[in-house]
Design goal:
The complex is a heterodimer of chains A (226) and B (298). Chain A is mainly alpha-helical. Chain A contains eight helices and no strands. The longest helix of chain A is centred in the first third of the chain and has 44 residues. Chain B is an all-alpha fold and 298 residues long. The chains are: A mainly alpha (226), B mainly alpha (298). Chains A and B meet through α2, α3, α4, α5 and α6 of A and α1, α4, α5, α8 and α9 of B. Chain B: One of its GO terms (biological process) is amino acid transport. Chain B: This is Amino acid ABC transporter permease.
Amino acid sequence: MSGYLSLWEQYGGQMLAAFWGNIQLAFYAAVASLILGLILALMRISPVPSFRWVGTAYVNIIRNTPLTIIITFGVAVLYGVFTWQLSSDFNLNFFQIAIFGLAIYHAAFFCEAIRAGVNTVPQGQAEAARAIGLGFFPAAQNIILPQALRGAITPIGNTLISLIKNTTVVAAGSVAEVSGLMKTMIEFRPDQGILIFLTIAMFFVIVVVPVGLLTTYLSKKLAVAR
Amino acid sequence: MSAQQSVLFDAPGPKTKRTILIINVIGAAVLLFVLYLLFKGLGDAGELKPEKWNVFAQGSIWSDYLLPGLMNTLKAAAISIVLALVFGFVFGLGRLSHMTWVRVISSIVVEFFRAVPVLIMMIFFWLFLGGAQLVPPDQSPFVAVVLGLTFYNGSVIAELVRSGVEGLPKGQREAGIAIGLTRGQSLRSIEVPQALTAMLPALIGQFVIILKDSALGSIVTYNELLYSANLVGTGNGNVFQALVVAAAIFIVINYALSALAKWLSRYLASRGEAGAAGHNDGGAEAPPAQVMGAPQTL
């Protein structure tokens, strides 16, 4: 027990800082990938064939590529080969490349989540809207999108949860975050290995479980009765 | 659903058709321009030079690096799939148990492993098992990858099992109990087989995730496909090309698996419609759709 306490003395500050890094990564990547995912979803449900084709190709390619490859790609290729510099600061640069990679990957999943939400709306709703004389925008705004958003809550929540957990994968791009720190900690304090793991795991349980509960609560509360 | 039309858009009239055509041409032009910029950028950086790609025409690159890497990826994925299925069924049925303590323990285990990132588990098992000499040091990356994948995906499968069984019409269990089966017998011989059919597409979707996540093994020095592609790339000065080849292999395998899942869900849905009317009472058509919505995870 005293060993565990000394562990906190030694690494407590670093652990909190590293975990804060993960939360920041998750936040920025979530905003960016939600926007990109929304654009992709609109492309995929639009009646314009070339837009649909681009959206479908993006989703099929990105969704089937491991995130580890995308992150490695960002660091080894964008930075290493093309000398991409998003920021003059060395660490901040990797951090931003990591956000970029996370956003690219999860946009495909957010796109599918939003599309799944739109698909939950029965065709009859749109037909009824047109029958009472609503045009495209009024129908979309008042009838279809409110129902679609409610249907998309669960898949969007699930994607958000995996995004939070996937921020650990940016360790492949040597960004300071908890999985890299955990490796250092276990190497230096092998006697506390299990407790180190449980501590880091608890960080994620504390963040992820409430998001899951909120998703379930919202999707039940806002469920469209059909 | 009319052909490729989404709920948001009405069938286009002649005027809209013309507008769509114009937007389509503009969209295609923008796409071609972006692709041109991409290839020009790659060409200017010297990434399209034949000598950077020719490495992959050598048999030795494949026989010494990429194919063994791919075999290791498939080996870890296959073993994890089997173990995750076992884990998933044990804890999924555990969550359905009528004994409170079994249910509580199963719930805690499943929720814990679902919330912890796979990579965190892999790094822990890798260093811990290796350091404690529980497995031979050269095997610890492999064991870590398999354990990490098993615990995470097993708990997702447990949720699939649970939602599959809970999605069944209540009458199925009642009928089982009415003919004198115990709850366990009814679960095993009536409910789980039906739930299994409904969850099959989602299950295959989960296999795609296992295969993709096995690439995390490269971080814990397991010499799978991405790891060997990195070796090839750094050895021959063509990291970009090596990563593209590795990504392409993953995409082809996963795309095939996803296509299988899609076909299977359509086949099962059509079989359900053609089946006996008695099978379609109440919510019987809803559960497959709900379970199918699940493979979005990760």
